[in-house]
Amino acid sequence: MSESVHTNTSLWSKGMMAVICAQFLSAFGDNALLFATLALMKAQFYPDWSQPVLQMVFVGAYILFAPFVGQVADSFAKGRVMMFANGLKLVGAASICFGVNPFIGYTLVGVGAAAYSPAKYGILGELTTGDKLVKANGLMESSTIAAILLGSVTGGILADWHVLASLGICAVVYAGAVVANLFITRLPAARPGQSWRFSAMTASFFSATASLWRNRETRFSLVGTSMFWGAGVTLRFLLVLWVPVALGIVDNATPTYLNAMVAVGIVAGAGAAAKLVTLDTVSRCMPAGILIGVVVAIFALQQALLPAYALLLLIGVFGGFFVVPLNALLQERGKQTVGAGNAIAVQNLGENGAMLLMLGLYSLAVKAGIPVVGVGIGFGVLFALAIVALWIWGRRR
């Protein structure tokens, strides 16, 4: 018996569990593929500054397709949109495995990820509602972070063993995600019948962007999540260069272990947010955002593995507590105004614009020869100050 929208708001419904499973496999593939592709680039002697450029082409796909993917997510059953998007990721991973330029293959994965994101978050608001939506986001983030944890570590370990084999396993995992999507409850399209003309779609997207930006709560959420994910992806690449400099370790696996500690921390932070924060008390998450930057600056000074693990775990805890309530707030308010798919597409534009900016600055800093420890300290301090400014701005408004 199929579930219609909100007829079963349980966090453990068949539809919710299928979404969480599909998300785990898709995110596992994303993270394993990143480290497998970085190992391939290392083996083929690409320059250090080109590593963040790999992520920039991925992010560029998000920005390019942002005006369209929200409408796609709202015009079709979101489970089927997720299946199609994972199919694109499968094609991208397989192409890298068969010798296509890694930047081209990873761009295809980015296109799939751009289409996938509005559907995966938008479907949560169709399967549950109200304060349970914060808990559903906690489940989604926990699944995602568990996938980051296992995918990153698996990608690094397999890349040390055999680069091509690691790429092939990533393709198989994406195939598993496609199969898992078949078991997601088929819900009716949220906003069928919209125009597919280019001008109408772009006008609709920018209208949704303006609507969300005018609203105080959604504007606050958009800025906060964009800053968080821009910082998060930059930290990931910072670790790849920081480990050999600060710790003297040159393998592919150690940066993935350190990334995994952030993932573990985010799971804990997301769980705490689900218990302590509601849609009416979102501002409680702001001190955690400030502490992310403070701890990143302290982390950059470390020269031993054990304190590095502990500090990255703490960064993850603060990160999970910070971002989960902001995500839930945007989904709930977006569903009431422009549609959940459009709201997430607008969020993706902001987040990936922030990623592109921060990765670009990071790549320029590396190319300019700034020591990686100095980059880490500056990055942490600037992030903490930016969250302080956001908090003051939000309170004044």
3D structure, described in words:
- The chain has 397 residues and is mostly helical.
- It has a single domain (14-186, 205-396), classed as MFS general substrate transporter like domains (Growth Hormone, Chain: A, Up-down Bundle).
- Helix content is 81%, strand content 0%.
- The longest helix is centred in the last third of the chain and has 33 residues, at 305-337.
Q: What is this structure, in a nutshell?
A:
This protein is an all-alpha fold.
Question: Which features does this protein show?
Answer:
mainly alpha; disordered N terminus; 0% strand; 14 helices; globular; 397 residues; single chain; Growth Hormone, Chain: A
**Unreliable stretches:** 1-7
| Number of contiguous helices | 14
* Tally of strands: 0
Please name the fourth-level CATH homologous superfamily: MFS general substrate transporter like domains
The geometry reads as globular
Strand fraction equals under 5%
What is the helix fraction of residues, given as a range?
over 70%
- Listing every helix as H and every strand as E from the N terminus to the C terminus, the arrangement reads HHHHHHHHHHHHHH
Radius of gyration: 20 Å
Distance between the termini: 47 Å
Mean pLDDT score, rounded?
A: 82
Count of discrete domains: 1
Give the structural class: mainly alpha
Membrane topology: Multi-pass membrane protein
Protein name: Lysophospholipid transporter LplT
GO cellular component, one term: plasma membrane
Organism: Trabulsiella odontotermitis
